[in-house]
Amino acid sequence: MPLAFDEAAPSYDTMVARNPGYHAHLATAAEALLAAVPTPGPLRLVDLGCGSGASTRALVTAARQDGRAVAVTGVDASSGMLDEAREKSWPAGVRFEHGLAQDLAARRGEFGLAGAVDGVLAAYLFRNVTERDEVLRDVHDLLAPDGVLVVQEYSVAHSRAADLIWSLVCWLVVIPLSWLTSRQTRLYRYLWRSVRGFDAVQTFVDRLYGAGFVDVEVSTVPGWQRGILHTFRARRAGDR
C-alpha cells in the first residue's frame, strides 16, 4: 500500500489534524516510551513507520520536556510521506530513511542503526505489516538491554461494539472528509479494512511475548476511541 500513502501524503497532515485526539494520543505514546527508557544520557530512538513525521515530533517533544538529548531515525515505506516529513523543521539528530519495516534487519547499516537503540515507537504501523512476528523479533534484536518498544494501534477484533463504532466513524466521517479534503479516499477505505483485519489485543500481546519481549502493558484512550485505539508497551529483558 505505499502508493496509497504517497497519494494521500499532501493532505495527510490536514486529515489527521481533524482527528480529535490524534496528536495528544501520539504524545501519550511518546511519553510512555520515554518514561520506561532507563538511559539517563542522550537517547537513540527509532520511529518505525514515521509517516509525515507527527510521531517523530511527539518523540522530540517528549524528550525535550524530559530534559534529555535525543537522536531519532524515522523509517517509512512511503516516499511521499517522507517528503512531507523532510520539509518540516527538525533539530539536529533527526533524520529519515526510506524502507519497509520488514527491511529493518537487512538494512540496519544503511539506516544508520548498526548499534543498539534505546527505544522504538511504532504508531499505526503493524496492521500494515504482513510479517508481524518477524518484524517484532527484528525490533527486539535492535533494542539495547532494557530498551523499550511502544506500539500504538487500532484493534477492534476483540469487540463487536468496537468494530461497529469503527465502521460507522469511517464511513460517516473519515471517508467523506477525505473526499472533501483531497478527492482521495483509497487510503482511508484501506484504513477501515486494515483495522478490521488486524489482530485482537491479546493476539498482539502474545506476539510480543513470542518475540522475546517482557513486561508487556496495554492501555486504551478516553473518548469514542476507548477500546479501539491501544498503546502496547514492552521491554527487552536486561538487568532489571
From TrEMBL:
It holds the Pfam family Ubie_methyltran. It comes from the Bacteria. The keyword Transferase applies. One of its GO terms (molecular function) is methyltransferase activity. The keyword Transferase applies. Keywords: Methyltransferase, Transferase, Ubiquinone. InterPro entries: SAM-dependent_MTases_sf. GO terms for biological process: methylation. This is Ubiquinone/menaquinone biosynthesis C-methylase UbiE.
